[in-house]
Amino acid sequence: MDDSVKIALYGPPGSGKSSAAGILEDYCGAIGLPCAVIKLADPLYEAQSAVYRIAGASLDDFYQKDGELLNSLGRHMRRINPMLLHDRFLARLHDVRHALGDVPSLIVCDDMRFPDHVFMRSIGFTLVRVFAPDEVCLSRRRGRGDLSLASATHVTENNLHVIEPDGSIDNSGTFSALRRSVIETLEKALGASAPEPRCRRG
């Protein structure tokens, strides 16, 4: 039995998906709800690390972003093997479920993109849009130390507006406002996952 609530965050680069995921992790820790964050793009980060290693360079962190490179890797990996990211994600999801055990938990994906939304919904994820004004997203991206900026109009970032969200998180204001919006979204998801009460027969 799968007792996990699953949330997939999506939005343009710099909208705050990773920040929202971090808030979810911290809040779950505070209320004692097991939580795991897993990424669809892990194979792309593996490939990015390999490219840097071959080029004789290094990254400060596995998830440090060379946006131009990741855009290109994402496009070509999906071309070469359209199922790669989904297959790897399913394997990771299986491992995470096994590690968490048969207890209520939260599983978060913080990097869903348009090509993934049908797949993510089919495996039980609630799709939550994270949004902020374009100029705010750009300012955040410039300030987070990316090695190069991903293009917000790249083919791998297009068509997000087509996805029908199950919920939305407004990240156009303060961190406190973001935290409130994230927690409200989680509480709605937890409430929606509760089983319907059964009527007693008299």
Describe the structure.
With 202 residues, the chain is of the alpha/beta class. The protein is built from seven helices and five strands. A five-stranded parallel β-sheet has the order 2-3-1-4-5, with helices on both faces. Residues 194-202 have low confidence and may be disordered.
Gyration radius over CA: 18 Å
Overall average residue pLDDT: 90
Strand order of the largest sheet: 2-3-1-4-5
The portion of residues forming beta strands comes to: 5-15%
The description of the largest β-sheet is:
5 strands, parallel
Distance between the termini: 30 Å
Assign a percent range to the helix content. 40-55%
Going by helix content, strand content and strand pairing, the class is: alpha/beta
Poorly predicted spans: 194-202
N-to-C SSE string, H for helix and E for strand: EHEHHHEHEHEH
Helix count, DSSP H or I runs of 4 or more residues: 7
Summarize the structure.
With 202 residues, this protein is α/β, with parallel strands linked by helices.
